[in-house]
Automatic annotation (TrEMBL):
InterPro entries noted in UniProt: Restrct_endonuc-II-like (IPR011335), tRNA_endonuc-like_dom_sf (IPR011856), UPF0102_YraN-like (IPR003509)
Name of the protein this chain belongs to: UPF0102 protein Galf_2893
Family from the record: Belongs to the UPF0102 family.
SUPFAM superfamilies the record matches: Restriction endonuclease-like (SSF52980)
A molecular function GO annotation: nucleic acid binding
Native source species: Gallionella capsiferriformans (strain ES-2)
A Pfam family it matches: UPF0102
Amino acid sequence: MKGPDAEKLAAEFLQRQGLQLVAHNYRSRFGEIDLIMQDGSVLVFVEVRQRSRADYGGAAASIDARKQQKLIRTAQHYLAQLHHMPPCRFDALLIDDRDGHHVQWLKNAFDA
């Protein structure tokens, strides 16, 4: 499964959980956010990680402090364009196999 397929699977999974897609592949000079979703009144920035093997900690371990800072800066860039500041959180959707059968949703994966 390639990146765009993993992101599509992630968006569909989260939509089945009741979230609404706001944007995908939002880019700024700081980085990219895979998915921006709405969960009720909460704006959710989602990092999608897919790994075919669990070596070195699997998909979760690949969201290190440096990656988190890029996501935070990119989210701040997105939020600066809004007229009001909604409650926000950072989630991770982890896919730890090639076929997308093992999906793990981490709400509040890290704090900004």
